[in-house]
Write a structure and sequence with these properties.
This protein has 139 residues and is mainly alpha-helical. It is built from 6 helices and 2 strands. The chain has 2 domains: 84 residues, no CATH class; 44 residues, no CATH class. The mean pLDDT is 93.
Length: 139
Amino acid sequence: MAKGVFKIHIDPDSFDEAVNEKMDEIADDIFANSQRNIVDFKIVDEGTLLKTANINRYFLHKEIVYQVPYADEIEFGRLPGSQPPLEPIKDWVRRKQIATEEKDINRIAWAIVKDIKENGKTPRPFLSPAIEQVRSKRK
């Protein structure tokens, strides 16, 4: 070897495996923070958002998945103009015991639906702050 020449060789398979392991570690941190954010930011109602979440792990590809249909609406909000479904809101009114008689439950739920349709719904992000928490921790 000539003087002053240094060679570095990285086995591609070992490199890919090391990157994959680091991606798993980062996904785990983001997932844990997002779960903690849901609780800390009081986004929990029945706990379905928490219970249905998981990480899909593929080689060099990770997905943090919140499987409930309203996860995006919580994270990003809802723009005015579209009407949310009535039944989940009626169920929420019952769970919170805001009303007990069906006619009152319907009246309150329809008022909430109408308000959301007119004004939209404010975002309550839990995943994007989790990503930022991990990003700032690793700088």
